[in-house]
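Model it.
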Amino acid sequence: MTSYRKKQVLLVGAGEFALIAHEYFTYDSDYEVVGFCVNNEYKNAETLNGLPVIDYEKISETAPPGSLDIFVAVPASNLNRLRKKFYLELKQMGYSFASYQSSKAFVWRNAKVGENCFIFEANVVQPFVTIGDNCVLWSGNHIGHRSVIGNHSFLTSHVVVSGYCSVGEGCFLGVNSTLTDNISIGDYSILGAGSVLNRDALPESIYVGSPARVLAGRKSFDAGI
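Modeled.
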C-alpha cells in the first residue's frame, strides 16, 4: 500500500500573513509547508514555527525551481505592489505557485481562480467569476456572477462585489465595502471601509462614503499620499 505524500510549499514572507498561511496550508490543504523565505535584511531568526527561514537572495540555490511550489504570503503592502514584485520575480525564475482555497468557502465549479491566490473561509464565488493571479480574498466576501477580480488585488472582509463588475489590477477593497451591479474600478484604486460604489471608479484613486465619492486621485498617489 503506497503512502500519500503531500505537495511541498515554501512561503515567501515571515510576517502575520505568512503565519496565517502556514496555519491554513497545514490544517486545510494538500500542502506541507517546508519553510519561510525573506530578504536577508529582514531575517530575524533562522527558524520560524520550527521551520527554516531561508534568504530570498539565495532561494534558487536553496530551493530551486521544480523542487517545490511557492506561495507569496505578503499582504497589501504598497497597494499590493510588493506582493506583485515577488510574484513576478519568482515567476520569471521558473517557480510554480500554490493557491489556497478554504474548505469552508463556496466556489462554484466554473469560477476561474488564478495562481498564488488565497481564499479564506465563508467566501462565496458565484458562477462564471474570474479571479486573477496573486489575489487575496479575506473572510466572508461575496463575488457575484460574471464579475472579474484583476491580478494582485486584495479584498478584505465582508466585501460585496455584485454581478457583472470589473475590479482592476492591484485594487484594495475595504471591510464592508459594496459594488453595485455593472461597476468597474480602475487599476490600483482603493475603496474605503463601508463605502458603497454605484458608479465606475477611476484608476489610482481613493473612494469613500455612501454613495462613494472620490477622495484623492493620481496626483495624490504620485505624492505618496
